[in-house]
Write a structure and sequence with these properties.
Elements: H1 2-6, H2 17-23, H3 25-42, H4 49-59
Length: 69
């Protein structure tokens, strides 16, 4: 929704609506973060505190949200 708002996209009138959202830099970054988390979880057999720290680090963006706010 955020990308839709900042880019003034209208799904009723834009045939490329989903493509524009999927290619937006914020969406690309979010997909990369989620893919990294999934890969980490898929390759882990046992979890400990250090693993949680790694997951938190994967989501970190210089102490800002993924929207750079």
């Amino acid at each position: 929704m955020y990308i839709q708002e900042i880019e003034s996209l209208d799904f009723n009138n834009d045939n490329d609506f989903q493509k524009k959202i999927d290619k937006h830099p914020l969406m690309q970054k979010e997909i990369a973060v989620q893919s990294g988390i999934i890969s980490f979880l898929a390759n882990s057999k046992v979890f400990d505190f250090g693993d949680l720290q790694i997951l938190l680090h994967l989501q970190e963006n210089n102490k800002k949200s993924n929207l750079n706010l």
